[in-house]
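Lab notebook, bench 4. The sequencing result for the construct came back, and we need a structural model before the next group meeting so we can plan mutations. Quick request posted to the team channel:

Model the 3D structure of this chain.
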Amino acid sequence: MKTRHPWKSFIAFAIAGLLAQSALAGAIVQKPIKDRIEFGIETSSIVRKYDVKVKAESSEIILTGTVATEEQKAEVERLAKVAGAARIQNAIVVNADEDRNLAERIRTGLSKAGEKINDDWVSAKVSWFLMNDDLLTDSAIKVDVDNRIVTLKGDVRSTQARSRAVALATDTEGVKRVVDKLTIVR
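Done. Here's the predicted structure in token form:
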């Protein structure tokens, strides 16, 4: 006759409960499909400088905007292939003069989308990047901007998180320099 160990059933039940809870938490925390695609585009060294728009209607994704090459257009479409994207309509226009157009906008103090770049704009953009990066989920970062110089203050969980926060801020359109005042807390 086998001896039953009630604590084994309890442990199995507890583990099953934790797994279900963690799966539920992951479903609740998962970012909307549009945000995940936009974040991928905005952090891609290949296409981040172009004004690409993402529209998500249920699981259908519509991409619009202008890039300079067919390769860049294909890269945007590749980045849009995230979980939940069933159909992608790529209506991006290829214009060989787009790099020159972007350079002119930047020269006149405008963003790639034609918006005036100022401290509030930079602060909002850097904050958006920091909030949407999975490595920085447990971080508490305050963004201060003065004359387009970004100061990052607060707590991160690792040196990798610190490096990622600084890199995201540095790569943000319109940022002149980043001052790192982040503290690593474990």
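Confidence is low (pLDDT under 50) at residues 1-14, 16-29.
Will bring this to the meeting.
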